[in-house]
Design a protein that fits this description.
6-stranded mixed sheet; 10 helices; 6 strands; 37% helix
C-alpha cells in the first residue's frame, strides 16, 4: 500500500502510516485482483488504493464564531474552505468524505482501475452496496455457538479487563486468539450517512479531466498558486442523493 503511494509521487512519512492505522476519521479502500476471492490464505494484489477522510458535521455557531474572528480550525478542509469562501455556515453542517489520496499500480495505470475504484466508492457511500449472500442462517448458528461458549470466554474476558486496567506497563504481550480481519468486502461494511464526496488537488488538465469523468463538480478555485508546486488548488464535489435526498442540481 505504501509502495503504491510512493510510486504515485506522494510525500510519505511514518506519520502517514500511523494515521492510516489509528485515525478514526480516515479509512482505506483497496481495489483487489480477482485472486482475492479464490485464495484466502495469501494477500491479494492491490490494483488501486483510495484514502478517505470523513469531514463535516460542524455546528453552525462554531463556524460563524471562527469566521467572525478570521480563523478556522484544523482539519475538515472542504467544509471550512467552502464556508469561508462563500460565507455559508450551513454547508459545514453537512457530512462528507474527502478523497485524500488515490494511487494505481504503476503497471496498470491508464486502464480504468482508478475510475472503477472511485465508482465503487461512490456507490458504497450512496447506499447502493447490498449483500446478496444469505447470511441469516449462518448468523443464527454463530449466535448459538457464542451463547454456548459464553461461560468459557467469560474468564478470558475478565483477565483481559484486568490487564487493561493496569495500563501499558502491566499489559502482558501475547499472541491474540481472535484478530479482526485485515480486509472486508464493502457489502459487509456499514456505510456512514453522508451528503457528499469530494476531493482537493493542484489543478492540472489531466487531473481535472479525470475527476470530471468521475462525476465531480468544480466548486472552488484558489486565486493564488501554491508556493511549492505553482498549481492552483481546487475543490470538486459530488452529491450522494440516495443518502441525503438531494441530487446534483445545487452543484454548478
Amino acid at each position: 500500500l505504501m509502495g503504491l503511494y510512493t510510486s504515485a509521487h506522494y510525500k510519505n512519512s511514518p506519520n502517514d502510516l500511523q494515521m492510516l492505522s489509528d485515525a478514526p476519521a480516515h479509512a482505506v479502500f483497496c481495489l483487489l485482483s480477482p485472486s482475492a476471492e479464490q485464495d484466502a490464505n495469501s494477500l491479494p494484489d492491490i490494483l488501486a488504493v483510495v484514502q478517505v477522510a470523513l469531514e463535516g458535521q460542524i455546528s453552525r455557531k462554531s463556524v460563524e464564531a471562527q469566521l467572525a474572528r478570521g480563523h478556522r480550525s484544523a482539519g475538515d478542509m472542504i467544509p471550512w474552505t467552502l464556508s469561508q469562501q462563500f460565507g455559508d455556515s450551513k454547508f459545514a453542517q453537512l457530512s462528507g468524505a474527502r478523497i485524500v489520496r488515490i494511487a494505481t499500480h504503476p503497471s496498470l495505470q491508464g486502464m480504468g482501475y482508478g475510475t472503477r475504484a472511485i465508482e465503487l466508492l461512490h456507490r458504497f457511500y450512496n447506499g447502493e452496496m447490498v449483500s446478496l449472500a444469505g447470511n441469516d442462517s449462518s448468523d443464527e448458528e454463530a449466535d448459538n455457538n457464542d451463547s454456548a461458549n459464553d461461560g468459557e470466554e467469560s474468564d478470558e474476558e475478565s483477565k483481559d479487563e484486568s490487564t487493561e486496567k493496569k495500563g501499558i506497563r502491566g499489559e502482558r504481550v501475547a499472541p491474540r486468539k481472535e484478530l479482526p480481519p485485515l480486509l472486508l468486502p464493502l457489502t459487509e461494511v456499514e456505510a456512514p450517512r453522508l451528503d457528499w464526496i469530494g476531493t482537493s488537488f493542484g489543478l492540472t488538465e489531466q487531473l481535472h479531466r479525470f475527476w470530471s469523468r468521475n462525476g465531480m463538480h468544480l466548486l472552488y478555485l484558489r486565486q493564488t498558486p501554491n508556493e511549492l508546486t505553482g498549481e492552483h488548488s481546487v475543490i470538486m464535489l459530488r452529491a450522494l442523493p440516495n443518502r441525503s435526498g438531494v441530487d446534483d442540481a445545487w452543484l454548478p
